[in-house]
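Exercise 7. Given the encoded structure of a 394-residue chain, write a plausible sequence.
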């Protein structure tokens, strides 16, 4: 009772692996999100997009280049800096769509270009990407191949000096606005694990067409595109890493994408708990604040317990990831647990808000819709369980 009536916030930051420097960054991100993102989110959700200027603004403030070296215009940090950025974005009120749009670019599309790309490729896409002048997207999923990544069919055939690409992609975050698509293609007739490569395809290439901006349940402020390639010519120097070794690149990228999703979810849980506590203190029923009812207190207690468990698993995985451990099992567990848990917590937050929780003007309504993507995107719950099972030799 005293905790609910007192001033204890739901979120407490933070033990290792974060240092005072990370806490400074956390504070900077908090101020930025509260001043420049949160007040506009509702409008951007309605418009089904956020202004492109936001990339440039985030680039200017250094947020898009946190983990990239200074010689490329980055901040010279590590994944931990990125983790702070992602967690604070969702904890301070960015919608799932805003976070997805910014991070599909900075944390999902650019990292493989930096990690597997050569100097020319880094200069061409990462340097302007860090400034927010060029926007990237990652193109893996196809209409006929989602979970079964090795089954993708978009075909890149060798020509003199490069490739010609035919096929399609779907569900691509930033697919409509991107300047470059880091794209998985088949570079052998059979494709599969030993026949996939990564090509960076510039979206102004002839034959590259955005065929649809998809309507979604949540994540309204991010664009999700369907793309068709008709004889798109891609020069030799756009190949990332080695030909036919793209499957390994995809898998390497997934670990960070999934861990980021877990980190974002932990931030979103804190926010939902804070919102629920505030609401429960203010809303009166039967002549007193609903926080006074045991049922509500217990709901919040359960939400906070699930959030604490999520944070512990996620941060432990983050620490080990940062130390270079092989954390495939733990990343899959963190992704599985946090995404499903966030849906549960968002659902409880809506319940605590009663009829108002069902109304668009209340953030919890949007949060529940946004959360539902978590158990699907970046590898479904079922696929996470398959991966975890395999790590036990099953
Ligand atoms: C809003 C949004 C944004 C996205 N952004 C991107 C992006 O930027 N880039 C990108 O490449 N992709 C993106 N995706 C795609 C996303 O990664 C896929 O939707 C996801 O991997 C699942 O693939 P699928 O939708 O084809 O489902 P399917 O693979 O068709 O799965 C359908 C169902 O079958 C289950 N299933 C499939 N195989 C198995 C199995 N072996 N065992 C048990 N169950 C199984 C699945 O778990 C699921 O429940 C996005 C998706 C959405 C919705």
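Solution.
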């Amino acid at each position: 009772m005293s905790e609910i009536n007192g001033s204890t916030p739901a979120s407490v930051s933070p033990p290792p692996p974060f240092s005072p420097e990370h806490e400074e960054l956390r504070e900077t991100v908090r101020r930025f999100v509260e001043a420049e993102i949160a007040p506009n989110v509702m409008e951007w959700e309605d418009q089904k997009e956020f202004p492109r200027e936001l990339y440039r603004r985030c680039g200017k403030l250094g947020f898009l280049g946190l983990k990239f070296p200074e010689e490329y215009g980055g901040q010279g940090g590590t994944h931990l800096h990125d983790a702070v950025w992602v967690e604070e974005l969702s904890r301070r009120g960015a919608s799932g769509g805003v976070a997805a749009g910014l991070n599909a670019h900075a944390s999902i599309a650019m990292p493989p270009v930096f990690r597997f790309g050569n100097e020319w490729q880094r200069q061409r896409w990462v340097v302007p990407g860090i400034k927010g002048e060029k926007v990237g997207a990652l193109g893996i999923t196809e209409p006929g191949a989602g979970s079964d990544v090795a089954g993708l069919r978009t075909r890149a055939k060798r020509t003199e000096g490069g490739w010609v690409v035919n096929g399609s992609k779907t569900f691509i975050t930033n697919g409509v606005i991107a300047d470059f698509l880091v794209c998985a293609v088949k570079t052998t007739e059979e494709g599969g694990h030993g026949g996939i490569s990564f090509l960076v395809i510039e979206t102004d290439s002839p034959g590259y067409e955005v065929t649809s901006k998809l309507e979604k349940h949540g994540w309204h402020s991010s664009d999700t595109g369907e793309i068709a390639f008709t004889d798109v010519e891609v020069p030799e120097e756009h190949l990332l890493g080695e030909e036919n070794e793209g499957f390994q690149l995809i898998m390497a990228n997934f670990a960070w994408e999934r861990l980021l999703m877990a980190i974002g979810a932990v931030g979103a849980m804190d926010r939902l708990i804070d919102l629920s506590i505030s609401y429960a203190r203010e809303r009166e029923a039967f002549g007193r604040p609903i926080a006074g009812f045991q049922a509500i207190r217990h709901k919040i207690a359960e939400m906070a317990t699930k959030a604490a468990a999520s944070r512990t698993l996620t941060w432990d995985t983050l620490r080990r990831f940062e130390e270079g451990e092989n954390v495939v099992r733990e990343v899959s567990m963190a992704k599985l647990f946090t995404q499903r848990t966030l849906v549960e917590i968002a659902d409880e937050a809506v319940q605590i808000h009663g009829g108002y929780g069902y109304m668009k003007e209340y953030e919890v309504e949007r949060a529940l819709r946004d959360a539902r993507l978590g158990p699907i995107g970046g590898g479904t719950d079922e696929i996470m369980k398959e991966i975890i099972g395999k790590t036990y030799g099953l």
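Remark. The chain has twelve helices and ten strands. Students should compare their own answers with the one above.
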